[in-house]
């Protein structure tokens, strides 16, 4: 397995970060970047000229990661050559958020099942219910196949997110890559680092990923009361105060962040489901724990490589973490580098949601928010 990387910035245009002369050899390209740039036909043609035989999967971001750099308004490109790992790619369009389950099912059906080892997914970040998408994928895929990936971003604008597969990126799109055979070795890990505060409240009225009431009261009004002056910045300010979500009888659960609010309905729409009967609690940032969480995710993703280091790591971290860490955001990426080592090519993006199993020994994946999620690759 070989990789090479390049980046485009407005100041310097294209720069090579590493070079293995992959041009015609690369079978897969990960492309992350600014929404407008990814939609540009001429830019796509230019990237295709770099890697004419590769499947190019792309996603918009709330910040691009390459090595230990975190960029904005750029493009980061990672070309990958596999010695003996067949690939299969597929995409679908989604008209309504209510079609998220079917979209996942359709994508899973499009992938051949024999020899399938792992699936990566990039999804529109605004018009897809991530929980339903994951459920659709896992209901069709073999139980032995894990899924990782994320919901694409658009800085903190929440205006338009795009995904592409072998063409300029488009809104309302979901794409997957399947990895096949016994040569591929893949690890994954996901951790957060937020502290809960305030009382726990019961979800008394909700529909899928739309939350209406907590403890019988307007969820939006309660949330605004906790946010105080920062409520004026919703939904973006909600990234700083996610909700922890747990089922009765469970000590831990998932984290959910807001995608949009409806003042008339008094509701909040989240990236994934918030089921009735679950308990939620507000969370706030703890800087050191966020960075420690990135290190924990790296350690989890490194489990299959105990005597070596992975060749490639795709990092998907939540935009909420970036907003909290601000000018120190590269510290979480640097902590990942310390774990994975200097020989691992690193790329990725800041997202509106992350998809990964809860532990490195599980295959059943979940939609997460506010985590650093890492997928690592190597070949035997």
Overview of this protein structure:
21% of the residues lie in helices and 41% in strands. The protein has 380 residues and is an alpha+beta fold. Strands 14, 15, 16, 17, 18, 19, 20 and 21 form an 8-stranded antiparallel sheet that branches. It has a 6-stranded mixed sheet with strand order 2-1-7-3-4-11. A 6-stranded mixed sheet has the order 6-5-23-22-26-13. Strand 19 (258-262) and strand 20 form a beta hairpin.
Condensed summary:
This protein is α+β, with helices and mostly antiparallel strands. Helix content is 21%, strand content 41%.
Oligomeric category = single chain
* Spatial gap, N to C terminus: 9 Å
User: Which overall shape is indicated by the principal axes computed on the Cα atoms?
Assistant: globular
Q: What can be said about the biggest beta sheet? A: 8 strands, antiparallel
Strand content: 35-45%
Q: What are the low-pLDDT stretches, counting only 5+ consecutive residues below 50? A: none
Cα-atom radius of gyration: 19 Å
pLDDT averaged residue by residue: 94
Decide which structural class fits the backbone: alpha+beta
Number of helices: 8
Question: Can you tag this structure with a few keywords?
Answer:
single chain, 380 residues, 6-stranded mixed sheet, globular
Strand-helix topology:
Blueprint (H helix, E strand, L loop, with lengths): L1 E8 L3 E6 L9 E6 L1 H5 L1 H10 L4 E6 L3 E3 L2 E3 L3 E7 L5 E7 L6 H11 L5 E8 L6 H11 L5 E6 L11 E3 L7 E8 L3 E8 L2 E14 L2 E5 L2 E2 H9 L15 E4 L7 E3 L1 E5 L4 E4 L8 E7 L1 H15 L10 E7 H7 L4 H11 L4 E7 L1 E5 L7 E4 L3 E8 L1
């Amino acid at each position: 397995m070989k990789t090479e990387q390049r980046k485009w910035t407005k100041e310097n245009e294209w720069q090579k970060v590493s070079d293995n002369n992959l041009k015609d050899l690369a079978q897969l390209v990960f492309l992350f970047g600014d929404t407008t740039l990814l939609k540009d036909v001429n830019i796509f043609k230019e990237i295709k000229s770099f890697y004419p035989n590769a499947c190019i999967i792309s996603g918009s971001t709330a910040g691009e990661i390459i090595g230990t750099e975190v960029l904005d308004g750029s493009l980061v490109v990672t070309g990958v050559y596999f010695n003996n790992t067949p690939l299969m790619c597929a995409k679908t369009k989604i008209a309504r958020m209510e079609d998220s389950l079917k979209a996942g099912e359709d994508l899973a059906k499009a992938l051949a099942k024999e020899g399938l080892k792992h699936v990566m997914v990039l999804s529109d970040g605004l018009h897809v219910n991530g929980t339903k998408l994951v459920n659709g994928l896992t209901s069709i895929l073999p139980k032995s196949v894990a899924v990782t990936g994320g919901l694409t971003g658009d800085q903190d604008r929440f205006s338009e997110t795009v995904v592409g597969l072998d063409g300029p990126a488009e809104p309302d799109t979901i794409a997957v890559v399947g990895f096949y055979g016994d040569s591929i070795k893949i690890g994954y890990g996901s951790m957060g680092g937020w502290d809960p505060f305030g009382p726990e409240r019961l979800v008394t009225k909700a529909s899928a990923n739309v939350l209406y009431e907590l403890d019988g009261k307007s969820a939006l009004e309660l949330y605004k009361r906790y946010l105080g002056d920062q409520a004026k910045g919703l939904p973006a300010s909600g990234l700083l105060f996610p909700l922890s979500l747990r089922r009765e009888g469970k000590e831990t659960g998932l984290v959910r962040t807001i995608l949009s609010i409806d003042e008339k309905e008094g509701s909040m729409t989240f990236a994934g489901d918030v089921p009735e009967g679950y308990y939620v609690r507000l969370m706030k940032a703890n800087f050191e724990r966020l960075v420690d969480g990135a290190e924990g995710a790296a350690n989890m993703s490194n489990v299959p490589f105990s005597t070596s280091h992975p060749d490639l790591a795709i990092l998907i971290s939540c935009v909420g973490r970036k907003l909290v860490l601000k000018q120190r955001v590269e510290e979480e990426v640097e902590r990942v580098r310390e774990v994975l080592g200097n020989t691992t090519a690193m790329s990725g993006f800041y997202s509106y949601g992350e998809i990964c199993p809860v532990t490195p020994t599980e295959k059943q994946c979940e939609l997460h928010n506010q985590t650093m999620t890492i997928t690592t690759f190597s070949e035997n």
